[in-house]
Design a protein that fits this description.
Blueprint: H1 7-11, E1 15-18, H2 23-35, E2 41-45, H3 48-56, E3 61-62, H4 66-69, H5 100-109
Parallel strand pairs: 1-2, 1-3
Length: about 110
């Protein structure tokens, strides 16, 4: 196969979830509901680095945006076959020329 996994596959492993209120958590919860898959959270974190450390030490799996997962190249990434959470990142700023700080942030995001 193409190495893709399902949410049911992920749910059979200890889950490292972000805290309620995080956009990532909301979208992951929604994806599991859509797939009609129940999961149990083994660890709940409020920090991306903490999540990666738990995964690195083989204590669980974590669902996160690919752009965040790319920060941890030593960890294996598996894409979902279907029902994958979808993140939309948007930037809102005043009209006109951005400030130097805003311009730097925009360069980082794009």
């Amino acid at each position: 196969g193409d190495g893709r996994v399902t949410l049911a596959d992920a749910a059979r492993m200890p889950m490292v979830d972000f805290a309620p209120g995080w956009a990532v958590r909301r979208l992951v919860d929604q994806a599991f509901r859509t797939a009609m898959v129940e999961r149990a959270t083994a660890f709940e974190v409020n920090d991306i680095v903490a999540a990666s450390e738990l995964v690195r030490h083989d204590l669980g799996v974590c669902i996160m945006p690919e752009s965040i997962a790319a920060r941890f190249p030593d960890l294996a990434v598996h894409r979902f076959a279907h029902h994958a959470p979808v993140w939309k990142v948007m930037v809102v700023r005043p009209r006109g020329e951005p400030s130097p700080a805003a311009a730097a942030l925009l360069r980082h995001l794009t």
